[in-house]
């Protein structure tokens, strides 16, 4: 390929470079069913421009993808979302958002590799889509917290009722959030990090 003199090759932006104070990086996955807000959460909290693999939804998905509760959604993640957030000057989290549609779940195995923990985003309008997601994490032994994404028209239930409905043990944290808001998404990640720390202390 011939390049013209006007062609430019650009690398990472200055703000995308890893802070020089970083001493540890941790991989976290954001999982959940279709349309629960995974891409939104990664985008809202990432300190770098997030990488997304969204594609426009077409009629080919009719009858294949279950978009109940998200009928107005026009794009879907087909591989992953990626972002990064510095928790402290020394600790950085790499965030990987998984595709929500079941036909793309074969990609989850690779995304779970090396993950220290996970956030399960839940939409209370469609609790049932979370059952298989939670089951997959339990099968792989990936610790997780539950984040209830606060959609305006979603029903609200007491935390203990949600714990019972999702068949969760008492030690798994459940936190309500608004995935559109950076502070709220960061609180979810901090809850996960505290949970992981408590597990490490228990096993020590």
UniProtKB/TrEMBL annotation:
Give the InterPro entries listed for this entry: Gliding_Motility_GTPase, Gpn, P-loop_NTPase
User: What are the entry keywords?
Assistant: GTP-binding, Hydrolase, Nucleotide-binding
Tell me its family. Answer: Belongs to the GPN-loop GTPase family.
Q: Tell me what this protein is called.
A: ATP/GTP-binding protein
